[in-house]
Design a protein that fits this description.
Elements: H1 3-33, H2 42-54, E1 60-61, E2 68-69, H3 76-87, H4 95-121, H5 124-136, H6 138-144, H7 150-170, H8 173-187, H9 194-206, H10 210-233, H11 244-250, H12 259-280, H13 288-302, H14 308-323, H15 329-332, H16 336-346, H17 351-380, H18 392-406, E3 413-414, H19 418-425, E4 429-430, H20 439-442, H21 452-461, E5 466-469, H22 478-491, E6 496-501, E7 508-512, H23 515-521
Length: 522
Amino acid sequence: MSSYQANLKQNGALILLLLAAALLAPSYWTALHTPATGVYHDDSIYLITARTLAEGRGYWIESIPEPIAQTKYPILFPALLAIVWKLAPDFPSNVIYFKLLPFAATLVWLYLSYRLINRLSGSRILAATAIALTASSPQVVFFSTTVLSETLFAALATAAILFWTKTSDSGSKSALILSAIFAAAAYHTRTIGFCLILSALVAFAWQKKWKEASIFAAVAGSLALPWIFWQALHVNAPDPYLSQENYYSAYNIVMSFGWNEKLRIAMLNLLALPLSVQSFFDLSWGALPGFICLPLILRAFIGKELPFIVKAFLIFSLSVILMWVWPPLRFMVPLMPLLVWAVWCGVPGMGKKILLPCCWLLFGQGVWASHTFSEAALESGFWSPAPAGKHEWREFTRQMDWLKVNTLPSAIVQSNLDPTIYLFSNRKAIRGSYQNVSLSWYLDKEQVLGTPDEFEKTLRQNQVRFIVEVPWSWFMQSRFVADLVSKASQGNPSEFKLRYKSELEGFRIFEFQPPQQQEKTQ
C-alpha cells in the first residue's frame, strides 16, 4: 500500500465528514436564519419560562390569565435560554441567539456520537457515516434549529453513555461520577432521562458492579431530586394542559384508557417506529428501509456487539415511546445515531459492505430533502419538514401587530398557539381545549377537542375576548380548533364578530362577546 493510500484510509472519515458538512451547511444556515419561532408550542413555553427566569420571577408560566409554576418540562434547557435572554433581551431580534443553543448542542451530540461509536466499533468510517446520516435528516435539521430541547438531551445522554463505557472498561471513578452527572442533566432536560439513569443502574447490576451502581445511584439520584421536589410542591395546578398532572396521566396508556384502547395505541406506535425512517429522510419511495432495519435492530439486541447499556437505554426509551399517546417521530430523534449503530451490529458478515453505500444513499436523500425544505422556508418564513404556505409567518406577525394595536393590554385571547400569541403580542392567552389531539389518529375520535358548547363555556370561564385562528396545516390542532370556532360562531353568530381577515385563507381574528359582555359594552 502506497503512503497516499495509507493516508487516504486513515483520513477517510475526516474527508467524508467535511464533504457532509459542506453539503448540509446551506440547509442549516437557512434554518437558523428563518425568523419564525414558537411554531411548535413547546418552544414558546420554553421561551416564556426562560424570560421569567432571566427577569428574576422564577420558573413560572405567565402566558395564561392566572400564572402557574412550570411543572411540565424540567428546568435545564429554559435556564440556558435564560442566560441568552439576559445577554440579548430584545425579542424577537434575539431569536437567532436562542436557535444557536440547540444548534451548538447538535454539534456536541454529533461529536460525542462519533467518539462513542468509534470507541465501541473501532471504525472511524462507520462513526462518520452514522453522524453524517443523522445530520442529513430534515427532522434533525428542524430540531437543531428550533428552540426545543431534543438535541441538548441527546448530547447529554450520549455523554453519559460514553463515560459509562469508560468506567465500565477501566474502573475510572471520575468517569463514573461524570456519567452520573450527565445522566442527571439529561433528566433535567427531558423527563424521559429517567430511562438513562435506570439503564446505567441495570447495566452495572448486570456486570455485578454493585459499588459502581451505588455511587452512580447516589450521584444521579441526589441531582435529580430537586425537580421531583419542585413538582411535589406545585401539584394540582389549575391549567390542565400546561401542568404535570394532565400531561403525565392523559398522555400515556399506563394511567388512562381501557385495555382495547391501550393495545391499539401501543400497536399503532409499534407500526410507526419503522415508518419513522421514511419520515426521517422524506422518502418518496416507500417505507421499506424501516421494515428492513427493524429485524436487524432486534438481531443486534440478541448479539454481543451492542453494549448492555445501549440495549437497555433503547429498550426502556422505546417502551416509553410505545406507551405515549403521541406520534413517536419526535422522540426518536435523539436515538438516531444509536439506532444506526444498532442496525450495523445486526447486519451479518459481508452484509456490512452493502450497508455503508446504502447509508450514504439515504444521506443523499436527506440532503436533497433538506435543500427542498430550505427553498420553501425562504417563502414561508419558517423551516419545517412539512408543507407550508407562502408568506405564512409574515401573515402571523401581521395578526400580532393587529392585536397590539386594536386590543387592550388586559384582553385575553384564545388560540391553539396560546403561548406564541403571548410572546409576540404580550396578551394573555389560553388554549381553550385541553384534550390530546392525537386521539383523532389513535382512536378515530370525533370532536377530539370537545364540543362547540364545551369550547364556548371555556371561553366564558376564562373571559376570553378575542379568538385568533392560524391555519398552519402541519400543526395538528389547527383544523380542529378552526372547526370548533366555525361551529360555535354559526350556533351563536351574535357572539362572534369577525374583526380581522387576511388575504391568505384561514388567518382570522374574532371578537367574542357573550350576552353579559354585550350588556357592559352597551
